[in-house]
UniProtKB/TrEMBL annotation:
It comes from Brevibacillus choshinensis. Residues 210-247 have a biased composition (Low complexity). Residues 162-261 are annotated as: Disordered. Keywords: Signal. It holds the Pfam family DUF4247. Residues 1-23 form the signal peptide. The keyword Cell inner membrane does not apply. Residues 184-196 have a biased composition (Polar residues). InterPro entries: DUF4247. It comes from the Bacteria. This is DUF4247 domain-containing protein.
Length: 261
């Protein structure tokens, strides 16, 4: 019965854990998917990070991000600009004006949006109720996104991310040059390794024909039964048995077998 209960609980927990993994917590981690291209950071929590999605349209990127983690609000589909609203950040997915085949993902803190963006520009994409809560009646900037930063300049400046900034938002990984070699070979003295330098995890192969010990069986013509002994090559930690004669059995009882001393 306990085993059946355990199986039932396991069947219930596996789907629940799968759903929690899909749901995630907070906004998706872009650094694991897209390379970090530029950053802007000011005081009072004004931060902006730019990621590049190569050869992907704005609607495709927006859908990928929304599928990873459902935003509070998502703007209607548009080939130029789309917005995802999260509790602490706003994602502005925009077509790169310099390279239209790519999309730029601008991750802005709400404080950055409040102090830089043109609220009239956002009215075409974000719900009025969200804008009212975000700007609180104040219109401060004329910024319209990183793709047009040279025309509608933000109050801060963007720069190439430093090593510390890349650690905070790690870029995507690239293919390495290492190799994996499966152990085992038809050759007699072949060894194998894991890694590009071949200097670790060496497989040591003993010479052909070597053995770790031998078994010698002694037979006696005067006895119907034969006894054997094992002579290891190296010293053994196991002591020899006290007697090689067959065990003695008792009749009746519970069928126990005792060894004769």
């Amino acid at each position: 019965m306990p085993y059946k209960w355990f199986q039932s609980i396991k069947l219930l927990l596996v789907p629940a854990l799968f759903l929690l993994t899909l749901a995630g917590c907070g906004s998706p981690s872009l650094g694991e998917t897209y390379p970090l291209e530029s950053v802007s950071s000011k005081d009072r929590g004004q931060t902006s990070r730019i990621y590049r999605a190569e050869n992907k349209t704005v609607p495709v990127v927006a859908k990928e991000l929304a599928d990873q983690n459902q935003p509070d609000e998502m703007s209607k589909e548009d080939d130029q600009h789309m917005f995802l609203i999260y509790p602490d950040e706003i994602y502005h997915i925009q077509q790169d004006a310099a390279k239209p085949t790519d999309s730029l993902i601008e991750v802005d803190s709400k404080e950055y949006v409040r102090n830089n963006y043109d609220s009239s520009f956002l009215q075409g994409y974000i719900l009025a109720s969200v804008l009212d809560d975000l700007f609180d009646g104040h219109k401060k900037g004329s910024y319209r996104g990183y793709s047009s930063k040279d025309i509608y300049k933000p109050t801060g400046t963007y720069h190439v991310p430093t090593a510390e900034e890349k650690k905070a938002a790690p870029p995507i990984t690239t293919s390495g040059k290492g190799s994996i070699v499966k152990r085992g070979s038809n050759s007699k003295n072949a060894d194998s390794s894991v890694g590009s330098d071949g200097s670790i995890f060496k497989k040591q192969v003993e010479p052909a024909g070597s053995s770790s010990g031998k078994i010698i069986r002694n037979s006696s013509s005067s006895s119907s039964s034969s006894s054997g002994s094992v002579t290891p090559k190296r010293s053994s930690i196991f002591s020899s048995p006290k007697s090689n004669s067959p065990p003695r059995t008792k009749t009746g009882g519970f069928g126990r077998i005792t060894k004769r001393r």
